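lol ok so funny story. i was supposed to be doing the assay writeup but got distracted and ended up predicting the structure for this chain instead. priorities right. anyway since i did it might as well share w the group, maybe its usefull for someone
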Amino acid sequence: MQSPGWPRFLTTSLHRNLALMTLVFLALHIVTAVVDPFTNLGWVSAIVPFSSYYRTFWLGLGTIAAELVAAIVVTSLLRGLIGHAAWRVIHWLTYASWPIGVVHGLGTGTDAWSAWFFALTCACVAAVGFAVVYRLVAGPRDPLAEPRASFRSGVERKPEP
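and the output, tada:
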């Protein structure tokens, strides 16, 4: 996520901090949904997709999105053990988990079709759509694969094809 003129530490730190913030809010969302007496979901519904009696399909999508995020987190923590290539492939699940989560929100949320929530959802979809298009068209390759100066030899590595 390196941009010309932006230092790598800024973009890496921003990415990590946004990811951590997302995990905190996702955990809060799941916990509050499970303990909410209105839906009475229980933990099984939060773990097993399509097992809830309440809005089964839409909650199932939310469970799948959360499990995809969990796979991203676990593999990020184990990146040194599984290797960069395997981690990278699994990390691309982010592009699947987010739209599944958005559809989950539209189908499950009690305010999903109110004007303010729908406008906010459309703005988020537009912003993420723009970011994805930018990333695919003008964005850099994997920043870990970019050439860097070696601290030992002072020689730059050649980029991988």
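The chain has a mean pLDDT of 83. The two ends are 18 Å apart (CA to CA).
back to the writeup now i swear
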